[in-house]
Write a structure and sequence with these properties.
By secondary structure, the chain is mainly beta. The protein has one domain. The chain is built from 2 helices and 14 strands; from the N terminus they run αβαβββββββββββββ. The strands form 3 sheets. A 7-stranded antiparallel β-sheet has the order 8-9-10-11-12-13-14, with no helix packed on it. Strand 4 and strand 5 form a beta hairpin.
Length: about 220
Protein backbone atom coordinates (compact mmCIF):
# COMPACT_ATOMS: atom_id res chain seq x y z
CA UNK A 1 0.00 0.00 0.00
CA UNK A 2 2.79 2.44 0.94
CA UNK A 3 4.73 1.58 -2.23
CA UNK A 4 1.60 2.18 -4.30
CA UNK A 5 1.07 5.62 -2.77
CA UNK A 6 4.73 6.53 -3.36
CA UNK A 7 4.49 5.42 -7.00
CA UNK A 8 1.33 7.49 -7.53
CA UNK A 9 3.10 10.53 -6.04
CA UNK A 10 6.06 10.04 -8.39
CA UNK A 11 3.73 9.81 -11.40
CA UNK A 12 1.96 13.00 -10.33
CA UNK A 13 5.27 14.87 -10.08
CA UNK A 14 6.41 13.58 -13.48
CA UNK A 15 3.11 14.59 -15.08
CA UNK A 16 3.34 18.08 -13.59
CA UNK A 17 6.92 18.47 -14.86
CA UNK A 18 5.91 17.38 -18.37
CA UNK A 19 3.10 19.94 -18.50
CA UNK A 20 4.87 22.84 -16.80
CA UNK A 21 8.53 23.24 -17.90
CA UNK A 22 10.73 24.63 -15.15
CA UNK A 23 10.96 28.41 -15.28
CA UNK A 24 8.48 28.70 -18.17
CA UNK A 25 5.09 28.27 -16.56
CA UNK A 26 3.87 31.66 -17.71
CA UNK A 27 2.38 32.15 -21.14
CA UNK A 28 -0.11 34.24 -23.07
CA UNK A 29 -3.67 34.08 -21.80
CA UNK A 30 -6.33 32.32 -23.88
CA UNK A 31 -8.66 35.30 -23.59
CA UNK A 32 -8.97 38.81 -22.18
CA UNK A 33 -10.32 42.27 -22.82
CA UNK A 34 -7.00 44.04 -23.46
CA UNK A 35 -3.33 43.32 -24.12
CA UNK A 36 -2.68 43.81 -20.40
CA UNK A 37 -4.95 40.83 -19.66
CA UNK A 38 -3.16 38.69 -22.23
CA UNK A 39 0.58 39.37 -21.85
CA UNK A 40 2.31 38.47 -18.56
CA UNK A 41 3.76 41.40 -16.61
CA UNK A 42 7.36 42.13 -17.54
CA UNK A 43 7.19 40.71 -21.06
CA UNK A 44 8.16 43.14 -23.81
CA UNK A 45 5.37 43.38 -26.37
CA UNK A 46 3.90 45.29 -29.30
CA UNK A 47 0.38 45.04 -30.66
CA UNK A 48 -2.01 46.22 -33.37
CA UNK A 49 -5.80 46.30 -33.52
CA UNK A 50 -8.15 46.12 -36.48
CA UNK A 51 -10.79 43.97 -38.13
CA UNK A 52 -8.97 40.98 -39.64
CA UNK A 53 -11.90 38.65 -40.35
CA UNK A 54 -14.32 41.39 -41.45
CA UNK A 55 -16.99 40.70 -38.86
CA UNK A 56 -17.13 44.31 -37.67
CA UNK A 57 -15.35 43.53 -34.37
CA UNK A 58 -11.83 44.66 -33.50
CA UNK A 59 -9.21 41.90 -33.40
CA UNK A 60 -5.77 41.97 -31.77
CA UNK A 61 -2.34 40.87 -32.95
CA UNK A 62 0.47 40.64 -30.41
CA UNK A 63 4.19 39.97 -30.55
CA UNK A 64 5.40 39.27 -27.02
CA UNK A 65 8.93 38.38 -25.89
CA UNK A 66 9.23 36.38 -22.65
CA UNK A 67 11.68 37.34 -19.92
CA UNK A 68 12.90 33.84 -19.00
CA UNK A 69 16.16 34.38 -17.13
CA UNK A 70 18.08 31.61 -18.90
CA UNK A 71 17.90 33.64 -22.13
CA UNK A 72 18.85 37.02 -20.63
CA UNK A 73 22.38 38.43 -20.56
CA UNK A 74 23.38 41.51 -18.60
CA UNK A 75 26.10 43.78 -19.95
CA UNK A 76 28.70 45.39 -17.66
CA UNK A 77 26.83 48.69 -17.75
CA UNK A 78 23.57 47.00 -16.70
CA UNK A 79 21.91 46.76 -20.14
CA UNK A 80 20.02 43.47 -20.52
CA UNK A 81 20.03 41.52 -23.78
CA UNK A 82 16.93 39.41 -24.31
CA UNK A 83 17.51 36.35 -26.48
CA UNK A 84 14.12 34.76 -25.79
CA UNK A 85 12.00 33.58 -28.73
CA UNK A 86 9.21 36.11 -29.48
CA UNK A 87 5.64 34.79 -29.70
CA UNK A 88 3.15 35.92 -32.35
CA UNK A 89 -0.50 35.54 -31.36
CA UNK A 90 -3.77 36.47 -33.05
CA UNK A 91 -6.91 37.14 -31.03
CA UNK A 92 -10.30 37.50 -32.66
CA UNK A 93 -12.87 39.80 -31.09
CA UNK A 94 -15.71 37.86 -29.50
CA UNK A 95 -18.07 40.75 -28.77
CA UNK A 96 -18.62 42.82 -25.65
CA UNK A 97 -14.94 43.77 -25.64
CA UNK A 98 -13.74 40.18 -25.26
CA UNK A 99 -10.75 38.76 -27.15
CA UNK A 100 -10.28 35.03 -27.77
CA UNK A 101 -7.01 33.42 -28.86
CA UNK A 102 -7.33 32.14 -32.43
CA UNK A 103 -3.79 30.87 -32.92
CA UNK A 104 -0.32 31.26 -31.38
CA UNK A 105 2.91 30.96 -33.37
CA UNK A 106 6.04 30.18 -31.36
CA UNK A 107 8.69 30.16 -34.10
CA UNK A 108 7.63 32.75 -36.67
CA UNK A 109 9.28 35.94 -35.41
CA UNK A 110 13.12 35.71 -35.34
CA UNK A 111 14.86 36.03 -31.99
CA UNK A 112 17.95 38.13 -31.38
CA UNK A 113 20.93 35.79 -31.37
CA UNK A 114 23.93 38.05 -30.74
CA UNK A 115 24.88 41.22 -28.90
CA UNK A 116 25.78 42.96 -32.18
CA UNK A 117 22.61 42.37 -34.19
CA UNK A 118 19.02 43.03 -33.17
CA UNK A 119 15.56 42.87 -34.73
CA UNK A 120 12.88 45.53 -34.54
CA UNK A 121 9.29 44.41 -35.15
CA UNK A 122 6.32 46.55 -36.16
CA UNK A 123 2.72 45.45 -36.69
CA UNK A 124 -0.07 47.06 -38.69
CA UNK A 125 -3.63 46.09 -39.53
CA UNK A 126 -4.68 48.11 -42.57
CA UNK A 127 -8.12 49.54 -43.30
CA UNK A 128 -8.70 46.62 -45.64
CA UNK A 129 -7.99 44.20 -42.82
CA UNK A 130 -4.62 42.92 -44.00
CA UNK A 131 -1.90 42.18 -41.46
CA UNK A 132 1.53 43.66 -42.12
CA UNK A 133 4.53 42.39 -40.16
CA UNK A 134 7.75 44.39 -40.65
CA UNK A 135 11.05 42.97 -39.39
CA UNK A 136 14.16 45.14 -39.51
CA UNK A 137 17.67 43.87 -38.82
CA UNK A 138 20.47 46.16 -37.69
CA UNK A 139 24.03 45.13 -36.82
CA UNK A 140 26.31 47.53 -34.96
CA UNK A 141 29.40 45.66 -36.20
CA UNK A 142 30.33 43.03 -38.73
CA UNK A 143 28.11 44.37 -41.50
CA UNK A 144 27.29 47.67 -43.21
CA UNK A 145 23.94 46.36 -44.38
CA UNK A 146 20.57 47.24 -42.88
CA UNK A 147 17.36 45.58 -44.03
CA UNK A 148 13.61 45.65 -43.54
CA UNK A 149 11.34 42.78 -44.60
CA UNK A 150 7.60 43.43 -44.63
CA UNK A 151 5.13 40.56 -44.99
CA UNK A 152 1.46 41.15 -45.83
CA UNK A 153 -1.14 38.55 -44.87
CA UNK A 154 -4.87 38.35 -45.55
CA UNK A 155 -7.44 36.24 -43.71
CA UNK A 156 -9.34 34.09 -46.18
CA UNK A 157 -10.75 30.57 -46.32
CA UNK A 158 -10.24 30.18 -42.58
CA UNK A 159 -6.54 31.05 -42.40
CA UNK A 160 -3.96 33.78 -43.03
CA UNK A 161 -2.16 33.70 -46.38
CA UNK A 162 0.87 35.64 -47.58
CA UNK A 163 -0.23 37.97 -50.39
CA UNK A 164 2.81 40.26 -50.62
CA UNK A 165 6.39 40.77 -49.50
CA UNK A 166 8.68 43.82 -49.56
CA UNK A 167 12.41 43.77 -48.91
CA UNK A 168 14.46 46.94 -48.50
CA UNK A 169 18.24 46.82 -48.12
CA UNK A 170 20.71 49.68 -47.74
CA UNK A 171 24.48 49.79 -47.38
CA UNK A 172 25.33 52.34 -44.69
CA UNK A 173 28.82 52.92 -46.07
CA UNK A 174 27.86 53.55 -49.72
CA UNK A 175 24.17 54.54 -49.60
CA UNK A 176 23.22 51.91 -52.17
CA UNK A 177 19.57 50.95 -51.75
CA UNK A 178 17.52 48.14 -53.26
CA UNK A 179 13.77 47.66 -52.79
CA UNK A 180 12.10 44.45 -53.94
CA UNK A 181 8.28 44.21 -53.91
CA UNK A 182 6.43 41.00 -54.73
CA UNK A 183 2.65 40.78 -55.14
CA UNK A 184 1.26 37.25 -54.89
CA UNK A 185 -2.20 38.26 -56.15
CA UNK A 186 -0.97 39.76 -59.43
CA UNK A 187 2.24 37.67 -59.47
CA UNK A 188 4.41 40.66 -60.33
CA UNK A 189 7.84 41.63 -58.98
CA UNK A 190 9.27 45.14 -58.87
CA UNK A 191 12.94 45.94 -58.19
CA UNK A 192 14.05 49.52 -57.58
CA UNK A 193 17.63 50.70 -57.00
CA UNK A 194 18.93 54.11 -55.92
CA UNK A 195 21.59 55.80 -53.82
CA UNK A 196 20.38 57.71 -50.76
CA UNK A 197 23.71 59.55 -50.44
CA UNK A 198 24.15 60.64 -54.06
CA UNK A 199 21.18 61.99 -56.05
CA UNK A 200 23.35 62.01 -59.18
CA UNK A 201 23.36 58.22 -59.28
CA UNK A 202 20.49 57.23 -61.62
CA UNK A 203 17.65 55.20 -60.11
CA UNK A 204 16.41 52.07 -61.85
CA UNK A 205 13.11 50.21 -61.89
CA UNK A 206 12.40 46.78 -63.31
CA UNK A 207 9.22 44.69 -63.44
CA UNK A 208 9.10 40.93 -63.96
CA UNK A 209 6.49 38.17 -63.77
CA UNK A 210 6.51 35.63 -60.93
CA UNK A 211 5.54 31.97 -61.42
CA UNK A 212 2.14 31.26 -59.88
CA UNK A 213 2.23 29.09 -56.77
CA UNK A 214 -0.16 28.25 -53.93
CA UNK A 215 -0.22 31.02 -51.34
CA UNK A 216 1.80 30.34 -48.19
CA UNK A 217 0.00 30.14 -44.86
CA UNK A 218 1.15 32.14 -41.88
CA UNK A 219 3.32 29.90 -39.75
CA UNK A 220 6.60 29.67 -41.66
CA UNK A 221 9.47 31.40 -39.87
CA UNK A 222 10.01 34.88 -41.31
Amino acid sequence: MIASKIWKSVLAVLLFMSITPCGQAQGLAQQGTSVDDIVPAGWRHIEAQGDLNKDGILDLVVVATPDFEENLKTRDDGYVYNFNQPILAIYFGAGQGRLQLWKQYDNVIPADESENCSHDITLEITRRGTLRIAISLFCSSGSYGASVDTYTYRYQQGDFYLIGMDNEEMQRNTGESTIVSENYLTWKRQVKTSNVFDVNVPSTEKWTRLPKKPLKRLGVRL
